[in-house]
Design goal:
There is one protein chain. 52% of the residues lie in helices and 9% in strands. By secondary structure, the chain is α+β, with helices and mostly antiparallel strands. The strands form two sheets. The chain has a four-stranded mixed beta sheet with strand order 4-3-5-6. The chain has a two-stranded antiparallel ribbon with strand order 1-2. Strand 1 (118-119) and strand 2 (126-127) form a beta hairpin. The chain is globular and about 50 Å long. The relative contact order is 0.13.
Length: 267
């Protein structure tokens, strides 16, 4: 993982980019449905607020975070819905202010974690830069849902490198979500950033390979686009199967998206 402060700076920039999508929305647009079934723009922002609240607690008050995780059950979807309630009770401008406050607290807390120190998280402790990258994954995925609901095309930047790297680290999450055993092999990832830089992960001589643009890769691992709509190439049977399973988050995979669903909004 790159320098911790670089990752935090990228997290801040991505948060500001998603913020810009909703900052000037009239109240009625907060009720627009997004591609996530049953979720409006307000649901997306409320979820991000709850995620950043947990990240800020983890990095800033680990004991409080441990107490919090011990108080919740094992119902993943139930916990997500319960976390939304406190935020969705607010009118849009209050919700926006609360999300901004949660982001600011989390960003400051993550930046203050000493280098090499782990912070508690939902399954196991993580380095602060990895948790920040997980936050970028949340911002990317839920920000894409908001952009799709609003008919906005977002600008991709080389900050996507941190999400790409996070997805490589968590390459087996898709198998776990489906109770499948990951293949006993290493993958090679050659992903091209918006600037044209090529980011390489895994053995150079690996038989199982994934190549393609970073934006497409990130849309795949957040399950915001179907693989058929993306310029990703798999070499090898295991790599090809991975394109159907890939996700960079724990928990249920969800329905994903259908081929051609966003034909008018191709990134």
């Amino acid at each position: 993982m790159a320098d911790a402060q670089d990752v935090i700076s990228a997290l801040v920039a991505d948060g500001e980019a998603v913020d810009a999508l909703v900052a000037d929305l009239p109240d009625e647009d907060w009720t627009r449905p997004t591609p996530a079934p049953g979720w409006t723009v307000a649901h997306q922002v409320a979820h991000l607020a709850s995620i950043f609240r947990m990240a800020g607690m983890s990095a800033g008050d680990p004991e409080a975070f441990r107490a919090f995780t011990e108080s919740i059950g094992q119902d993943f979807n139930g916990n997500v819905q319960e976390a939304l309630k406190a935020y969705l009770a607010n009118p849009p401008k209050v919700l926006l202010d609360r999300w901004r406050a949660e982001r600011d607290k989390a960003e400051r807390a993550l930046a203050a974690v000493p280098e090499g120190q782990l912070v508690p998280w939902l399954v196991r402790p993580l380095p602060a830069p990895v948790l920040a990258s997980a936050g970028m994954m949340e911002l990317f995925g839920h920000g894409q849902d908001i952009a799709d609901a609003l008919g906005v095309r977002r600008e991709a930047t080389d900050r996507l490198r941190y999400l790409v790297q996070f997805a490589v680290i968590t390459w087996d999450f898709g198998y776990q979500a489906r109770q499948l055993t990951p293949p006993d092999t290493e993958f090679r990832f050659e992903i091209t950033g918006p600037s044209g830089a090529v980011w390489e992960f895994g053995p150079a001589d690996a038989e199982q390979r994934i190549t393609g643009p970073a934006l497409d890769f990130c849309l795949l691992v957040t399950r915001r686009r179907h693989r058929d709509d993306l310029a990703l190439v798999a070499t090898g049977a295991d790599a090809d199967a991975w394109l159907d399973l890939a996700q960079a988050y724990r928990g249920p995979a969800g329905p994903g998206r259908t081929p051609g669903q966003f034909a008018s909004l191709r990134p």
